């Protein structure tokens, strides 16, 4: 389940389906929510969060394997969503309330800013351990949001980073107590909601144009 609420200038998109794994229902709901935000009058900003122990645990591999869906095509569609989030003509903030794994971690990285819970929950890119190679677009996305040493460590080891360490390594911008994650993310989004859309779109496309193109034209991926 994905819900969208507006509080003054800030839209809060909440994923509330257990581990918030990415399947077709999730993808359709996310795109529908972004359609609504995109069609709204200024000023706006977007906060994306989860509930309970999870922000998102990534692709719903059980659904993919059990439904007979073409995994390559589904991953391509998820990556198009990533490109859409990166290129939004408004500020986006990920409020990481809990575990943020795999494609869920990549979704968080698509946002302009990230606020993470400090006491529990991990940020992790475990693809090396689950034997699913990164696509060129995924690699470009992750590299654009991390220092080169952290990028290398996260990609080749599948290490789990707690909130405080993720902040120290600049994966997230702040690590705070659980009760403060959403309020701080919302306050940050509100403070930045007045940016001109055309200008912000042009800036983001200039900064991340290659990443956006790679994500929009991905070959997809599946277990090796």
Account of the 3D structure:
There is one protein chain. The protein is an alpha/beta fold and 224 residues long. The protein has one domain: 2-enoyl-CoA Hydratase, Chain A, domain 1. It is built from ten helices and ten strands. The strands form two sheets. It has a six-stranded mixed sheet, sandwiched between helices. Strand 2 (10-15), helix 1 (24-38) and strand 3 (45-49) form a beta-alpha-beta unit. Helix 3 (71-86) packs antiparallel against helix 10 (197-216) and helix 6 (136-145) crosses helix 10 (197-216). The longest helix is centred in the C-terminal third of the chain and has 20 residues, at 197-216.
Number of strands: 10
CA distance, first residue to last residue? 30 Å
CATH class category: Alpha Beta
- Low-pLDDT ranges: none
CATH topology: 2-enoyl-CoA Hydratase, Chain A, domain 1
- Average pLDDT over all residues: 97
Number of helices: 10
The shape, in one word, is: globular
Q: Determine the strand fraction and express it as a percent band.
A: 15-25%
Q: What are the secondary-structure elements, in order, as H or E? A: EEHEEHHEEHEEHHHEHEHH
Class based on secondary structure composition and strand pairing: alpha/beta
Helix content: 40-55%
Q: What count of structural domains?
A: 1
Radius of gyration: 16 Å
How would a crystallographer describe the biggest sheet?
A: 6 strands, mixed
CATH homologous superfamily classification:
2-enoyl-CoA Hydratase, Chain A, domain 1
Strand order of the largest sheet: 1-2-3-5-7-10
